[in-house]
Write a structure and sequence with these properties.
five-stranded antiparallel beta sheet, alpha+beta, 10 helices
């Protein structure tokens, strides 16, 4: 086996592709060596390009440094200039041109189109824009003093009460601290009121018409309020009689002289009464020409009021005997026949009856004879005999508030709590509310719950069949209607049991094999089998003549070159050359040239006694063979010596800066060169 000859004038030939049926022979011009020779020529071409770049014979489109440094400058509103040769980043300070405004603080400024301040002044009152009150979010005062308002009425509970009237028409009246109402001036007797609430004008109060026409009258009639209600002219009959003292003589001295016929002539008895001189009491004639004053006095069993008749008619009444007014079964009377005591016995013994049966005895006899209880039961669970019993709101274990319960048992005496066997008790209750309920207890078990057998009346729903019904608290249907779509509740899918497991179970028709393979049906789902059949129909092993499926070849299969059914990826093929000629770049050789990768880069500002990491431009499959850091000569300090060393891995190189610097140690730049394999 010989090495391929190095081409003298390498170019960039095309790479030969071998056909499946082609026979590959070796030798200088053999087809087997054609593709390697073409790749070698390409490699030599790249090698010469790199050498020409290094020597300067070839001008690179991209380089680390410009041959001739250039000045980059900015003029206009700002000035800035730096010299740049590409060896490293450069910076410079931009100096803005003066705009003509003096440095300082201004409330109002003028800016040009580029945002520069060209003029400034202090803010005046006219500069403050009108603000929507809602835009003032914080710091707003909460009091009149806070706003400096001196002509407003401070709030008070009385003003708040007036404000709460919300402008209701009427007269506002303060009814107490913090309380106000609306009043309307109302017309009383003898007056009229207009605008009583003051809404349409001032309230006006006027006297009502009394019914008499305006004019002059000799005789008038007035009401209780002094208003003239009637008037007429005076007549002779209206002249009042004269006083007796005005008649000076000619007056008669006897009744006959005056023609008086209805007066009592004077007598000794009348004189005796007159001599009593109006003393209060009952006047009693004690004989001819004598009279005394008497007073009616109270005797035994009576009372007297107004005994002298002065304040009213004398009244004689029976005195209280000490017993309260009422009806009594047994009374006690005094010698005058007055009831002085009374009682209302409630038992035979109270009446002194000894040969009568009591209600308890009668109830016991009736219960014994008929099995009926007339007294309300205390607890329906405790009834011990068959029969009926009354229950009320105080009865325990009742089915309703009031009613009658019938108890039936196979035992004459029902033992409390029952017995272990052959003790059957049944109860049926008839409530005053119209309900009928029943329950039972078997042997020594618990009572069953009350079951409602019937209610008071019809439920109000028409007899029929309904899918949606409304029931009351007794389970009766009180309304009914047919179900609508809105009545169907939203169900959680997890709550639905016995769900179908196939498309057919849901009534969904799947595509047939023919429909799946044809690929025209667009409304039916396909099962996994139909998907496989459709793919199998369309896809086959890929060949040069037929599109289809093919697996990816392994690296060993790619290197062997025997399998013609697998696909080779660019990573496995790697039959060419790759490079990146930048500040941080690489040159990668193909696998058949060892797959070696040479990488380089530049690290800036490594701190003294510190480190800095450079990621490899092309990560390796393992550790690099070697990595070389070199300090950039332009960055060495004159105050000592620096040294660098590296630590590498498949993804990058870490460079450490050390040395012997007496003073002024500064960060250093370094170049890194690394060789490895992908």
């Amino acid at each position: 086996m010989k090495t391929l000859p190095i081409p003298q004038n390498p170019g960039w030939p095309s790479i030969t592709q071998y056909e499946v049926t082609e026979r590959l022979l070796g030798g200088p011009d053999g087809p087997l060596n054609r593709a390697p020779a073409e790749l070698l020529e390409r490699t030599e071409f790249l090698k010469k390009q790199i050498a020409d770049l290094v020597s300067g014979a070839l001008v690179a489109e991209y380089a680390d440094r410009l041959k001739t440094p250039r000045t980059i400058a900015i003029t206009g509103d700002g000035s800035w200039a730096v010299t740049f040769d590409g060896n490293g980043n450069v910076t410079g300070a931009l100096t803005l041109a003066n705009t003509g405004v003096a440095a300082g603080s201004y409330g109002i400024v003028t800016v040009d189109a580029k945002g520069r301040v060209t003029a400034g002044r202090q803010m005046g009152a006219g500069d403050v824009p009108a603000h929507d009150w809602s835009k003032i979010a914080t710091g707003k005062p909460t009091t009149l003093d806070g706003y400096g308002i001196t002509d407003a009425q401070p709030s008070s509970q009385d003003l708040t009460a007036l404000a709460n009237l919300k402008g209701a028409p009427g007269l506002y009246v303060n009814t107490g601290p913090g309380s106000a109402v609306v009043r309307t001036l109302a017309a009383g007797q003898g007056v009229t009121v207009s605008n009583g609430d003051g809404k349409a004008g001032n309230p006006t109060v006027a006297l009502g018409n009394s019914g008499v026409a305006a004019g002059s009258y000799g005789i008038v009639t007035v009401d209780a309020m002094g208003r003239v209600t009637a008037g007429r002219q005076m007549t002779e009959a209206d002249v009042p009689p004269l006083g007796w003292a005005k008649i000076a003589n000619g007056k008669p001295t006897t009744l006959d002289g005056y023609g008086i016929t209805d007066a009592q002539p004077a007598s000794p008895d009348l004189t005796a009464l007159a001599n009593l001189k109006g003393a209060p009491g009952l006047y009693v004639n004690t004989g001819p020409g004598t009279a005394v004053v008497r007073t009616l006095a109270a005797g035994q069993g009576v009372t007297v009021s107004n005994g002298d008749g002065k304040a009213g008619n004398p009244t004689v009444a029976l005195g209280n005997s000490g017993v309260a007014a009422g009806s009594y079964g047994i009374v006690t009377v005094d010698a005058m026949g007055r009831v002085t005591a009374g009682s209302k016995p409630t038992t035979l013994a109270g009446y002194g009856i000894t040969d009568g049966a009591t209600s308890a005895q009668l109830a016991a006899a009736m219960q014994y004879a008929l099995g009926i209880s007339v007294d309300p039961a205390g607890d329906l669970n405790s009834i011990s005999v068959s029969g009926s019993a009354v229950y009320n709101s105080k009865t325990a274990n009742r089915p309703s508030t009031y009613g009658v319960v019938i108890t039936v048992s196979n035992m004459i005496g029902i033992p409390a709590g029952g017995t272990d066997q052959s003790c059957w008790v049944f109860q049926q209750a008839f409530g005053t509310d119209g309900t009928i309920s029943q329950r039972r207890r078997v042997n020594a078990g618990d009572w069953s719950p009350w079951v409602l057998l019937s209610d008071a009346g019809p439920s109000g729903v028409v007899a029929g069949t309904y899918s949606i019904v409304t029931v009351d608290d007794r389970g009766r249907v009180t309304a009914g209607r047919q179900m609508t779509a809105a009545d169907v509740p939203a169900l959680d899918w997890s709550k639905i049991t016995n769900k179908p497991a196939t498309l057919a179970g849901y009534g969904i028709a799947a595509a047939t094999q023919g429909e799946a393979e044809a690929g025209a049906e667009n409304s039916k789902p396909m099962t996994a089998l139909r998907v496989f059949q459709a793919i199998a129909k369309k896809v086959a092993q890929a060949t040069e003549a037929l599109a289809g499926l093919a697996r990816i070849a392994t690296q060993d299969e790619t290197n062997a070159g025997d399998d013609d059914t697998a696909i080779v990826t660019p990573r496995k093929l790697r039959a060419g050359f790759a490079c990146s000629l930048t500040e941080n770049g690489f040159v990668a050789f193909p696998w058949w040239l060892g797959g070696f990768v040479m990488q380089w880069g530049r690290i800036l500002a490594i701190p003294y006694d510190g480190s800095k990491r450079m990621p490899l431009p092309l990560p390796l499959s393992g550790l690099p063979f070697c990595s070389f850091p070199v300090i950039e000569a332009a960055s060495v300090s004159p105050n000592g010596n620096y040294s660098v060393y590296a630590q590498h891995d498949a993804a990058g190189v870490t460079v450490y800066l050390d040395g012997n610097v007496t003073s002024g140690a500064i960060p250093q730049n370094a170049f890194v060169f690394s060789i490895g394999r992908r």
